[in-house]
Amino acid sequence: MSHLEQSFSVKFEYKIFFTSSLFDTGNPIFSDFFKGRPSESVRKIFFVVDQGVADTHPDLLKDIKAYFTAHQDVQLIEHVLIVPGGEASKNDPILFEQIVEAVNTYGIDRHSYIVAIGGGAVLDLVGYAAAVSHRGIKHIRIPTTVLSQNDSGIGVKNGINYKGKKNFLGTFAPPASVFNDDEFLTTLTDRDYRSGISEAIKVALIKDPEFFYWIEKHTQQLAQRDTDTMNYLIKHCAQLHLNHIGGDDPFETGSARPLDFGHWSAHKLEQLSNFEVLHGEAVAMGIALDSAYSFLKGMLTEEKLLKILNVLAALSFNISDPIIQINDQQSPILLGLSEFQEHLGGLLTITLLTDIGTGKEVHEMDHELLIKASAYVTAFTQHYTSQNTIKH
Amino acid sequence: MSHLEQSFSVKFEYKIFFTSSLFDTGNPIFSDFFKGRPSESVRKIFFVVDQGVADTHPDLLKDIKAYFTAHQDVQLIEHVLIVPGGEASKNDPILFEQIVEAVNTYGIDRHSYIVAIGGGAVLDLVGYAAAVSHRGIKHIRIPTTVLSQNDSGIGVKNGINYKGKKNFLGTFAPPASVFNDDEFLTTLTDRDYRSGISEAIKVALIKDPEFFYWIEKHTQQLAQRDTDTMNYLIKHCAQLHLNHIGGDDPFETGSARPLDFGHWSAHKLEQLSNFEVLHGEAVAMGIALDSAYSFLKGMLTEEKLLKILNVLAALSFNISDPIIQINDQQSPILLGLSEFQEHLGGLLTITLLTDIGTGKEVHEMDHELLIKASAYVTAFTQHYTSQNTIKH
């Protein structure tokens, strides 16, 4: 027996730019990105846009065309593909085919760019199609929701659903660049706007206590959609996510997923609600449940738990929706544990809290204690609602 | 304007093992691989086997089952998927679906393994399906042809064809491990056996003059299928390929593809022949053409060119098949230049020779000189054939 060994490292680098009015011809940031990477060949650029964004920004396509008439660093492909937003875009294999077909039709090569403008689901779909076309076409993300600007849109994962299973097909493929434009946030519904805050609360709870206390102090400004407050939240949350990804295991070869705090139940209840519950809303419910479980397990003080629940409630998250309630051992939410384990592969690994800002991994969850945790959150909500009804 | 920066490196490591009778229960090498990567969870292993290999090795599936009965490091999934071999396996999207479906049906997670046994095309198909399932299931390659053992099977690329375009969908995804078993080579046809030698000649011509002269000295043993000689050729060629991949640009972000020496015409003529010409045969023809072109361009001496053509002829490669002949500007082979450029993206970049063992990149090819190079190779073959007919 003999063998040869292969060993090499691949370096990945990209930037997340923060701006307003990205496609205003007077804004050089997008054009400068291409000027900073000169090329001897003609580079094409192809846009895929979330239907919801195109609807709420009726001038967007016109602005994009005007931008690339003024800035000819890359050659705009006139046809812009519009795809439905939300989870629907990841469920329909035809949309994947349409993007790959465009790569073929327009001769988009590995030196060209595919840009996605939209929420996290559209970015995931387009990122996947770009990653597997010609073994990887450069992909630029322009996230348009709070959730995608602070979390899903700035990371290295993409994917589509397959046979009803979330992200069954996908890759780890860092983007060429990300552009966060705060103007896109102005047209979000209150529900979409606020739901994106839960991932910031989540990452604060496992990584950064000061950030949690900052959020606690600013719930009112966030609820009132103050631009500067939200810009700070997004940028700080993005930095925490980048730090995590750039850590030990960017492509997640192990079983641990600390960033998935609160997510085992969230994934399940999104599915149980037929995705009527938004991802961020589901994560808020999952955070409440696993924080209450951490307290009942003796890991977290009740004082800290109540701080967490109060922040979620102050931001109007409905953390005791009947769909998240675990009333008995037959509750369908509990199936989320085994599905989460299958998704991770290997051992069940759940992150709980020992303090605000400190996560701890466990490998089993006590169903009876989860039933009690769910009841605790429901009782808290009843109390909170009655208190706040009396106050106002 | 402000921005955040992301930067990280991902390390990739794998081994290529050389053995005989891999699935003999007395051979510990495969079992040892799993013992060397202990895991707390149950790891499954799923096999996809090239139809041609299953046909010529009728005991293979039985041997695999016996092996995993004796060595229970991983849990064998009893169902083995058999897929057609050759380029057909990359043209049929149903086969991709079947592998993904198996991942779903058998609950194959990111800690489990998918093994492909077969020629390069089957390895490409299975590698792609594994790379995108759950964002990357560990993939083991067991190449069964000379070509895949010394070249395609040991690298980091996978892919399937789409709309008639080679490798239109695919990724860069290093395997978990590669096992080269020389027993698989014994059942190859002479044509398959010899065709794999052309990639060794190619890499020798651009990287390693001593290896070329070694091949020149051993053409007779290779033509007679001497096992030790072939084992040396495969291992040395594999090492040269690994060195190249592990160099500056493992995931080929630039335009240069020195390993594609002789390939721009080879890809086109495979397609023109409806893949009746084997890849290795096409590469031999492409090497002859671009070597003759290098001589006519004044880059390579005629003495060195003749050494190259003599080695190819001694190995019975038909380097002047009518299909590779370029008789005029309308020759369909010439379209291969623009298709190769599209495939690379960016500038046309062709590697030529300035010496045996030394490549040089050029960015244009003179069609008139290609017509002359083709005529040179044809005249050489006529002369070689008449000489050798007289001799014997």
TrEMBL record, chains A, B:
CDD domains: DHQS-like. Residues 81-194 form the 3-dehydroquinate synthase N-terminal domain. One of its GO terms (biological process) is amino acid biosynthetic process. Residues 196-320 form the 3-dehydroquinate synthase C-terminal domain. It holds the Pfam family DHQ_synthase. The keyword NAD applies. PANTHER family: 3-DEHYDROQUINATE SYNTHASE, 3-DEHYDROQUINATE SYNTHASE, CHLOROPLASTIC. This is 3-dehydroquinate synthase. It comes from Pedobacter frigoris.
